[in-house]
What we know:
- It is built from one helix and eleven strands, in the order ββββββαβββββ.
- Strands 2-3-11-6-8 form a five-stranded antiparallel sheet, with no helix packed on it. Strands 1-5-9-7 form a four-stranded antiparallel sheet.
- The mean pLDDT is 95.
- Strand 2 and strand 3 form a beta hairpin.
- By secondary structure, it is mostly beta strands.
- It starts with a strand and ends in a 28-residue tail after the last strand.
- Helix content is 5%, strand content 39%.
Amino acid sequence: MKVCIKKLNDKAIIPSYGSEFAAGADLYACLEADLEVKPHQTVLVPTGIAIELPLGYAGLIYARSGLATKKGLAPANKVGVVDCDYRGEVKVALHNHSEVVQTVAAGERVAQLVIAPYLTAEFEEKDELSSTVRGAGGFGSTGTK
């Protein structure tokens, strides 16, 4: 699948896959200088790129496991969504979950982008829904004791 990328900044780095079978392409911080992130602070990290995703696909922005486990930095919204009709700069809302100031370096890999198909539902209101064994059992209702 070919996906068009536009560099909005000369320092921007095109997303890249870390291995042959990686699901996520690394997104890089496009910064003029290193960025300090205070404990429990959320910052918007620019990537310097815009993306043109094919119709029926979304870009899902996930944490990089190394950054999350080593520095406590992960997307604030857990999973960011880039819609296929969005043409603005891709930014990562990065949250510092740690108790110490962390630094994001210019050019550092800050998140990963997974491109996935999606379905658009047509919602239809009904007075009743079909019954199932589970019914309205919610959080934890299917677990074993």
